[in-house]
Amino acid sequence: MQQEPMIQAKGLTKLFGDFRAVHDLSFEVMPGEIFGLLGPNGAGKTTTLRMLSGLLQPTKGESFIAGHSMKNNQIAARQELGFLTGDMDLYRRLNPRELLTYFGRLYEVPEKTLEEAVDRLINEFGITDFENRFCEKLSTGQKQRVSIARTLVHDPKVVILDEPTTGLDIMASEFILQFIKKIAKEDGKCVIFSTHHLDEVERLCDRIAIIHQGQLQQIGSIQEVQQSARQERLADAFFSLVA
Amino acid sequence: MRFSIIKTIFQKELKEVLRDRRMIYLIILLPFFLYPALFYLIGKVGQNQQKQMSEESVQVLLNPDAEQTAVYEIVKNTAGFDLSLRNFDQSELDVLKNTIGIQVTADYNQQIAQNGTAQIEIFANQSNDLLKKRQNLIIQQLETINQQILLQRLDSAGLEQSFIQPLNIKKTDLASTKVRLGKAIGSYLPMMLLLFIFMGAIYIAIDITAGEKERRTLQTLFTTPSRVGEIIAGKFLAVLAVALTSAFMNLSSLVVAILLQAKLMGGNISKFAIDVSPTGWVWLILLIVLSAILLAAMSLAVVLLANSYKEAQSYVSPLMMLVLIPAILVQMPGMELNMTTACIPILNICLAMGAIFKGTFSIGAMALTVVFLAVYSAIALYFASLVFRNENVITGEKVNFKQLFAN
After folding, report:
1. Distance between CA B69 and CA B141 in Å, rounded?
2. In this structure, which CATH number among 2.60.120, 3.30.750, 3.40.190, 3.40.720 belongs to the domain B54-162?
3. Could you say which of A141, B94, B184, B294 would form a disulfide bridge with B377 (CB–CB 3.0 to 4.6 Å)?
4. From the centroid of its chain, how far is CA B323?
5. How large is the ipTM?
């Protein structure tokens, strides 16, 4: 049976005044797939992910999460979405357990299921030792673990990660990469993430899209992108497409 | 709107506020200790100043011609004066510290004896409280002598005192003690109350909007399936709860401090009792709640435009002016609650509260005030919702006001 795409971007366009941040961007991401969004600074990666998550309204075009339109059925679309950026922080005066419970309630996870989910995530992400400590007292790595757990507390079908490893040390970055691999390949979630690190892309992504000045330059598997750019390495393909 | 989501957001905001020591200090501890401490301090400083002033000696320069006059006797026999009998000029007094100069004409006794007018000129720096007080003391005693001489002159001329007082004008104040006290309380209490509500509202409003933006937690909330209306309602109720708590704490502390001060100074506490009818209390509570709603909504809408704590704090002063100026206008002569003033926000609150304290409120004007307050609160909340719906506000980008209203 053919699977339905979990993320659909259809002609997404975003204008900020006269500035065209994203232009006519279309792609689909399937369940269990890890999709990398690449591009230099200012290419429109964050704007694209924000439009997909409903934080920004597209000037033109539409996005769908697990079949729900972000424009017409935002609540249902967000219910299936976990969104994390390197730019998001945690509530300072809540401890990890309270924070996870808070977000679970916002996603209307039934209390009993939520309690179980919070316990499971706290164990799974090694949060037990600091589950009662206020988030403001946590280290960057500990915060990142809690943030990921927060993204998954409602068991979403789609996870969007905007530069999730920015500013993290090698250990914390590795933790995130392992997490991305696990939720896609073991749990079957659809993952889309943006990054500047091409080595992360080569390790994880099933398919990638390279955008430059708001426009899609190339989409496909890493091999397809390299072939299309007539380059043997992804880095060279990337430079030839955005130069 | 899902009540469970509103409740979740409300409880979370309150939990964070109650765990913030700075906020607890501002809302509960500061008002609890501030007024009693402030009143005690002011009372103590005032007492010390009074004591110091009464003990301090003032030099009086009196021209030698005045030695045989009543002026000389008064200054000589009054405690706290250091008398020097010598000639002086005005410029000398500018240099000398704590000195009063009195110039009495050489023909003082002759003028008094011949039913004439003796000239007495007193030189004192009126910006010096001590000199002003002592000058008044001298004048007071001279007035007594003046009155005595006048009575003697009338007597020797065979005239009654009524000869120089053809009209005896008496004033009778028809205002009851309740109205007088109500007017005094009604002039200041509403302003204080609004200030307390505003102070309580503004800091939590900043913390849960601009503060959250700065701490990069607001976006997370907007990626959840919560509706904008639910987010606004949850945050707004938290601001409202803190604003009302702050107002209650401040007001209770203020009343306790006033009563304590009155008791310490040996005053009659019952004189300070506010006499408000049961209907008045209902209106008063309604006004306080509506004021809190209005100020909470205003604070929330405005500070959300800021991207940082610092930027939000720069909005506090203009907002406070917006609250204080109408509250100060209440002091203007002739300001009463009527069908026109009932439509002006903030001013209507102060006048309506004043009318309640005086016991002179009319149901019509009160109802109009409440209706207008409800309308203004709704407008402020609508503006807050416009701001919350603006993607630039949530993502921390520069806000385009045209776009804000276009949406």
Report:
1. 13
2. 3.40.190
3. B294
4. 13
5. 0.88
By the 8 A CB rule, do B326 and B198 touch? no
Instruction: For residues A19 and B127, give the distance between their C-alpha atoms in angstroms, rounded to a whole number.
Output: 65
Q: pLDDT per residue over B230-288, tens digit each?
A: 998 999 999 999 888 888 887 788 777 777 776 766 666 565 556 677 888 888 888 88
- All residues of chain B having their beta carbon less than 8 Å from the beta carbon of residue A93 are 15-16, 19-20
Query: CATH number of the domain at A29-242, out of 3.40.50.1110, 3.40.50.300, 3.20.20.60, 3.40.50.150?
Result: 3.40.50.300
Joined tokens for residue A107: 């996603």
**Given an 8 Å threshold on Cβ–Cβ distance, is B19 in contact with A108?**
no
Q: What stretches of B166-222 show up as alpha helix (H) in DSSP?
A: 177-208, 210-214, 218-222
Q: Cβ atoms within 10 A of the Cβ of B177, count?
A: 10
Task: Indicate if the pLDDT at residue A65 is higher than 90.
Answer: yes
List chain B residues with CB under 8 Å of A83: 220, 223
Minimal Cβ distance to B220: which of A50, A88, A98 = A88
Instruction: For chain B, say whether A87 makes contact (Cβ under 8 Å).
Output: yes
Count of CB pairs separated by less than 8 Å, A with B:
72
Minimum-distance CB partner of B223 among A81, A105, A108: A81
